[in-house]
Amino acid sequence: MAPATGHKFTRNNPVVVVTGASAGVGRAVAVAFGRDGWRVALIARGRERLASAAREVEQAGGQALVIAADVADASAIESAASQVVSTWGRIDIWINNAMASVFAPATDLTPDEIRRVTDVTYLGQVHGTLAALRHMREKNKGTIVQIGSALSYRSIPLQSAYCAAKFAVRGFTDSLRSELQHEGSRVRLTMVQLPAVDTPQFDWARSHLPRGLQPVGPIHEPEPVAEAIMRAALEAPREMWIGSPTIQAILGTMVAPGFLDRMMARRAWEGQMTDEPAMPRDGNLFDAPPGDPGARGRFGSRSRQHVISVSGTTMRGILAAVALGCVAGAMTIAWRVGTKRTVTRPRRLPERERAARMIG
């Protein structure tokens, strides 16, 4: 299919790889890059949705390469990276977006469910990162983007396996970043922390809960979130925090984790379920579900059309400045209070001197 905008693609057109690109945030990201004339390699399991997403990328103005693969399979992702390079000669940006979750109390999860969530959400990003690095290190350039979440910092109930995997991605990324700096590599590594997004996952994720699933609000539409991810991929800050709920959750965890524990016990438990009754379902954990829902879910009427984003380094600097200002203010107040309470007492004479003065 010819691109709608008439881009002429050459070997100089940049190349981006997006995992989990057949639906939700990954699909919106792929289309956003296509709109800017990128060559986009789309990796996911569902062939039907991949073909549809590829058409959207090309209609937007990009060039698409479809690769059906499971990110939990390291060899399949290695082969996918090699296929991109053999087809287009390069990988400029690799975005690790694929994820899987199970909605249930931790005590209701099976070992297989926990393992599968870990294989997709954590190891899938590890596999993608290492596959991209093997090609990027040869040219000593490129950018790898890890799609994280506010849940990379602030865990919530009913998604323990997913939260643990996102925490693990952050740990792996920080270690790797130091290793790349140690070797003087010019390959860039960034992590993007997302807010709640209206995607189809809430209709096909595995669940053991008695009611329907929903994201904990405020909810954001995938397209503005995708634009922010694209900006992070191009600028490559250490971290990008997207959405005011993400910023609040991360900073709140740094300042008052115990308070947030109690708040999540109340709000996030009920907040992840609708009022509609539901039966437990297998979902997409082990097999790709049929159909092609696209990028958006069913919460559009409640979703925000705009999103703010800020560098995590900037926000930490602001928090540190505020904290130092509070400490300095407290010390000043304490000094002033202490000064006002200081009373100059007359020097007490020795007992013999007092007696001598009285005689005299």
UniProtKB/TrEMBL annotation:
Which is one Gene Ontology cellular component term of this protein? membrane
The organism sits in which domain of life?
Bacteria
Q: Give the matching SUPFAM superfamilies.
A: NAD(P)-binding Rossmann-fold domains (SSF51735)
Residues crossing the lipid bilayer are 318-338
Pfam (any one) = adh_short
Matching InterPro entries: KR_dom, NAD(P)-bd_dom_sf, Sc_DH/Rdtase_CS, SDR_fam
Q: Where is the Ketoreductase domain?
A: 14-200
Q: Which UniProt keywords apply?
A: Membrane, Oxidoreductase, Transmembrane, Transmembrane helix
Xref: Gene3D superfamilies: NAD(P)-binding Rossmann-like Domain
Instruction: Reply yes or no: does the keyword Transmembrane apply.
Output: yes
Please list which residues make up the signal peptide: none
Q: Name one GO molecular function term.
A: oxidoreductase activity
UniProt KW Transmembrane keyword: yes
NCBIfam families assigned: PRK07109.1
Q: Please give the family membership noted in the entry.
A: Belongs to the short-chain dehydrogenases/reductases (SDR) family.
- Cross-referenced PANTHER family: DEHYDROGENASE/REDUCTASE SDR FAMILY MEMBER 7B, DEHYDROGENASE_REDUCTASE SDR FAMILY MEMBER 7B
User: What's the protein called, per UniProt?
Assistant: Short-chain dehydrogenase
User: What does the record give as the organism's lineage?
Assistant: Bacteria, Pseudomonadati, Pseudomonadota, Alphaproteobacteria, Hyphomicrobiales
